[in-house]
Amino acid sequence: MASEDVLTEGEIDALMESVDDDTSAADAADDGQFRRFDFAAREQSLLREFTALGPLVERHAEALGEALESGFSIEFTVRGDTPSLLTVADAVASLERTVAVSTTTLSPLAGPVFAIAPADLLSFVVNAYFGGGSGGPAESARSNLTPTELRLAERIAEFQLSSMINSWVDKLPLEAGEINTLGMPDRLEMLPASEMLLRIAFTLSAGDFSSALSVMLPFAALEPYRERFAPPRKQDDVFEGQTWEPFFRRELPGIELEVAGVLATQSIALADLLELEAGAVIPLAPAEQVSLKVDNVTLAEGRYGSFDGVKAVQLHRLASLLFPAAS
Predict the structure, then answer these.
(1) 43-229 architecture in CATH?
(2) S-S: 50 plus which of 39, 130, 229, 234, CB 3.0-4.6 Å?
(3) Flagellar motor switch protein FliN-like C-terminal domain: which residues (predicted)?
(4) Is residue 310 within 8 Å of 320, Cβ to Cβ?
(5) Band of residue 159 on the pLDDT scale cut at 50, 70, 90
(6) Contact 202, 81 (CB under 8 A)
(7) 3 state SS of 312
(8) pTM of the shown model
C-alpha cells in the first residue's frame, strides 16, 4: 500500500484543472477549504536579501568583457542583467534551439554550475576570430554545433567562471572544477524540474551584433552563505576613549553589595548533633498503606495493625481483586 500512488495521474490532472478554473484564490479561501501558497514568490523574496549580488554582477560583467577582448581580440560591450530565480523546467524551456552548455563545480558551493553560450554568439566569434562573414548560419537551419564552436564555448565558459571567481573573492572565495561542454542541456535536464536556479545573465553587443551569456547555479547551494551577501548590519554605538569613566564614577557609589564570609568550618557527626545515646528511640510514623510486592508485582495491599498482642499487617485487598481475570 505504501508503494502505491495515493492519486492516479488522471486524478492529479483533474485536481490541477480545478485549481486553475475560474474560482479565484480569494473565493477559495473564503470557504475555508485551502489557501494558495506561491513558492516562487517565497524564493524571490529570499533573493532580495542578497543585495550584494547586484554590484557583484556589475564587476563580473566588466571583468568578462576584458577577458573576451583579451582572448578573442573582439571588443564586446557587456551589461549585467538583474539576477533572477527560475525553476530547472523554466531554465530548460528558455534555452535556444542550439546552445552550448558547460558543466562544472564551484566549491564550496554544492551541486553543478552551468555556463550557457548560444549558437549565434559562437558563430559570431568563429567568424570574427578566424575570419569569415558577419554572421553564422541562420539558427533555424542549425541543429548542432561544430567541434570548433564547442571548443570556443568551453573557452568562453572559462572566461565566465574566472571573472566570476575574481569578482566574488571578497564575498565568497570560489574554486572551479573541471569543465565539460556539450551541445545539449542533458545534464541540466537531469536536475529535478522544480529545483530553483540562480541565473546570472549578461547582454553582449559588438557593433550591430547582440547576444547573451548566462551562468546558472542551484540557489539552495548559495543560501548557507546568505549573510555574506546581505546588507551590512548597523553597528551599535560604542564608547570610545574615556567617555565611559564619568558614567562608572557616577553609578558605582549607589550600587548595593552583599558581602558574605566564612569564619570557620568544623566536621560533626549527626549523632552528636542530635545528642543521641545508645538505646535512644527515634519515633517513625508508620505508613498508612502497605503493599506486598514480588518482583515489582503487587500481590496484596493492607495496613498496619496488631494480632495477639504483636504487630501485624492486615490485608484487605488480594491480587485476585487488584487485577481483573484475563479474558
Answers:
(1) 3-Layer(aba) Sandwich (3.40)
(2) 229
(3) 251-318
(4) no
(5) very high
(6) yes
(7) strand
(8) 0.58
